[in-house]
Amino acid sequence: MKTLIIGGGAAGASCAARLRRNDEKAEITVLEQSDEISIANCGLPYYIGNVINSEETMHVSDVNKFRNWFNINVLLNTKAVSIDRNNRTVKTADNQEFSYDRLVIATGATPFVPPFEGLNKDKTFTLRTLSDANSIKNYIKEHEVSKAVVVGAGFIGVEMAENLCEPGIRTTIVELSSHIMPNVDIEVATVAQNKLKEKGIEIILNDGVKAFSDDKVILTSGNTVDFDIVIMSIGVMPQIELAKEAGLEVSRGIVVDSTLKTSDEYIYAAGDNVEITDFTTGSKALIPLAGPANRQGRIIADNICGKTETYKNTQGSSVVKIFELTLAAVGANEDRLKKLNIPYLKTFIYSNSHAGYYPGAKQILYKMLFTKEGRILGLQAIGEEGVEKRVDVVATVMRLNGSVHDLLDAELCYAPPFNSAKDAVNILGMNALNIIDGKVRMAFPEDLKDSYLIDVRPKAVFMNETIDGAVNIPITEIRNRLDEIPRDRKVVMFCNTGYTSYVASRIVNQNGFENVYSFGGGIVFFKSQQNFLNSNNS
Amino acid sequence: MKTLIIGGGAAGASCAARLRRNDEKAEITVLEQSDEISIANCGLPYYIGNVINSEETMHVSDVNKFRNWFNINVLLNTKAVSIDRNNRTVKTADNQEFSYDRLVIATGATPFVPPFEGLNKDKTFTLRTLSDANSIKNYIKEHEVSKAVVVGAGFIGVEMAENLCEPGIRTTIVELSSHIMPNVDIEVATVAQNKLKEKGIEIILNDGVKAFSDDKVILTSGNTVDFDIVIMSIGVMPQIELAKEAGLEVSRGIVVDSTLKTSDEYIYAAGDNVEITDFTTGSKALIPLAGPANRQGRIIADNICGKTETYKNTQGSSVVKIFELTLAAVGANEDRLKKLNIPYLKTFIYSNSHAGYYPGAKQILYKMLFTKEGRILGLQAIGEEGVEKRVDVVATVMRLNGSVHDLLDAELCYAPPFNSAKDAVNILGMNALNIIDGKVRMAFPEDLKDSYLIDVRPKAVFMNETIDGAVNIPITEIRNRLDEIPRDRKVVMFCNTGYTSYVASRIVNQNGFENVYSFGGGIVFFKSQQNFLNSNNS
Predict the structure, then answer these.
(1) Is A71's CB within 8 Å of B319's CB?
(2) B42 classed as catalytic
């Protein structure tokens, strides 16, 4: 069996290596248009920021290993330009022709740069390959770079902002939407934004690039931002031209079935160039992530060797470091659910990274989305420690079609330095079931403005700081002060992070008040949202 | 509804609080024999070691909160001494009588101390309650304590050893079995033992206490160990006398059905006094853990209020900090599977805590047990960072009846500071499936002695250090040196941690060698096992 693989990134390289392990006699050829295969793309921002010092470590694997360990024919600087499906051959830019029994298209994606007026290519960079990273490093080394603009605030944009800011470059993020990190919602993104601003990074939201002058970005709003260097990180485009020209079925990405076969029975595709099905919503999507690309490459190798492995769709599990913070997410966010008209319930909780009485515990903010039947639609979390751990567990429950009840039943490793006997995962399950069962009515930031606010914390705490307009009825007095609670309007109770107000709302609800809500996340959450607004106004 | 709860620990307290949240009108009484409720038992070793400084923080909740928030009648220093099931009343030591509609027995467990000859109670302590902890703290403060003996090396024993050693007390652990931490197997325990010894803690294995003299422990071997203080942490006994005397069905613990009801329809039991079903093996077991106790308390509260919640058995998910190390485990270990005659396959892998090219990555050792059908039976892991995270994910897969294939398909949050694109969880799944599919034959430490050993690493690395008796055939040369590999005996290939030898064994297996095995964990694993043996002999 002769297999030809176009592209030596995560999908192509893992497919090639697995093919060899499956079949010592297979003929395997990899065509790679750049001069490197299997590099650590996800580490590039840290390589630029000198967190990772050596270029050598950026090679996950190298050509020699593929040749000598795996006996794979790797051709670098070899760009495939056309596929002849009838004769099962591929032509390259340098006029070589390769025949195949099975073809794997793993061409990945490339950064998207709109044709902006005045764009100076010498000062404008994208980041996808090691040579991109070296270009940025060299430019910074060879020029006086004190001001950077990062356009687009997804994973790469945010990681680049951190890695430009840390060595002392004044950095501005420009983002078209209302918040950074479009995979999460505004409340969670706001916490990340506060951190970036605290570190001195300027964030311009709801504004886009209109044009460039030599050392200024001109924004749609008319404002300008000075720069010495620009990083364009708006997004990536799947590389589908080759497939399209060969007449394969394509949509936004190459169309594949569950075995990752294209519309041609001899051709597979994997990685960032493939349109996948979003596990949570069932909709078609482009979700360019390294884990899924690796998994897909392996599945294709097994299928070429006679198995029938299926790809079980992409959940979009992701994590990003934002200075001391970790932001992790899985599944759909509220924005996306709204867009798809999928009904949902939501909740916010704060929970300690580990037992509160053990030193170093830090609060983590969670936003969970779920259906009234208990299906989990998405989780977003931000905090300092143990953030992605909880998202991983919830992603696993989702993957196995578990429900919020399974979060409650999750039995996680417990000791005080690591978590609490009731882990955040359990609390998310309890909270969701209480909401579904009608045991608690949750209020959200958008509800505070027009509601009657009751701070249920002790008086001394209330006197020190509360939400404007709130009255104080400590939980310990609430059973005797029910007559002070209005019945004719929405009442929102709050405390520090949401547990006391939940208990208080139970007392009041059971005493016949239908209109009393608990503000999940409490005053800590409220303040995390306020800070950013305040600093924006100042 | 009048509910009486005997015991104000994790199970009793969580039951009481949930009852109130369920039903504002319920009558709820808690009888607690000590002078404290709902304390942070799991933090006690750290409180003794002054990692946790304040006694106040050790109260997860307090009596006032139970009374004032939850309107619960809590009686401290009130010991229940008998249950009259016909009249549904409970008598206390001080001759009070309490009637109930529903009774919850949450009496927990107490430390087991055999009646050793010569045991000096003034110098011998157990650790279960806050007052136990204060006794130990006071004894250390008021006496010259420079030598401690910890008898029994489970969770409490190991945590106590660390917390005695850190402030400078010379500490010796005495353990009857062949290794510490009986919930894991010897290979994983050995890594923990190395760490304890590195920190100066002496470990005596395969030896027990025979008797005490005033300042010496006399061991079964005849050896003696000097002490100023002894911590007895052999294990705990469920408190079942009350239930037994009332004629309730008891085994090693109180017998309950899946709704946590005892043999009396008006009486429930929860926590460390209950015999549960081991989720993994289906056998009956005592697994005293805080998480399950909390969960059980909540289930009982819901069932008393008319729901039919079931307890879905205990997996034994656990974690312990051992200085810089984290040791975590779930499910059954090899010792237990052997005892229960459950057939199993096993594997060891090493995997980085996060991407190897990102600073600070540390190797984690995993031991996984599974059936040839792919059911996961248990996972043990030890390392510095991200250890319990992977065990939590695997525990969740087990809980939802997933298989090793689901480990492979797990889509976990990935970025270089947090893990690798192929996470350890994925690699465990790949490895297990390769074993099941016959694609790799694994060798274990016990196989090394009588096998022909081939080091497949580069020659320079081999020359520097290898396993005694090994020959060197680098993977890059193996296809040309097949004739050097014997066919008439077991051949074990090894490398640093197991991946290269796996690839090498695939090459050789496919060239017709049936007798070639890969040593999972490689030389790093081998050395981790040797160190302890060497230091024991020295």
Answers:
(1) no
(2) yes
ipTM value: 0.96
CA distance A116 to chain B (A): 31
CB contact under 8 A, B421 and A479: no
Name the DSSP class of B128. Answer: S
**Is residue B128 a contact partner of residue B113, using CB atoms and an 8 Å limit?**
no
B205: closest CA of chain A, how far (Å): 25
Into how many domains does chain A fold?
4
Residue A214 lies in a domain: yes
Residue A38 has pLDDT above 90, yes or no: no
**How would you label B212-223 residue by residue, b for 16+ Cβ within 10 Å and e otherwise?**
beeeebbbeeee
Q: Across the beta sheet with B516-519, what order do the strands follow?
A: B442-443, B516-519, B491-494, B452-455, B471-472
Residue B250 lies in a domain: yes
- What ranges make up the beta strands (E) of B100-189? 102-105, 109-111, 124-125, 147-151, 170-174
Provide the strand spans (E) within B358-441: 363-370, 376-383
Residues A188-235 have pLDDT tens digits of 999 999 999 999 999 999 999 999 998 999 999 999 999 999 999 999
Cross-strand bridge partners of residue A338: none
Is the domain of B297 the same as that of B380?
no
Q: Per the domain annotation, does B360 fall within a domain? A: yes
- Domain span at residue B134 reads 124-234
In a domain, residue A221? The reply is: yes
- Please tell me whether residues B461 and B504 are part of one structural domain: yes
**What CATH number did the domain enclosing A49 receive?**
3.50.50.60
pTM of the model: 0.97
Name which of A64, A276, A296, A413 to mutate to probe chain B: the one with the most chain B Cβ atoms within 10 A of its Cβ.
A413
CA distances from A199 to A147, A161, A169, A170, A225 (A): 15, 10, 11, 10, 19
**Confidence band of B533 (pLDDT split at 50, 70, 90):** very low
pLDDT in tens, B352-374: 999 999 999 999 999 999 999 99
**Alpha-carbon distance A73 to A20, whole Å?**
11
DSSP A59: B
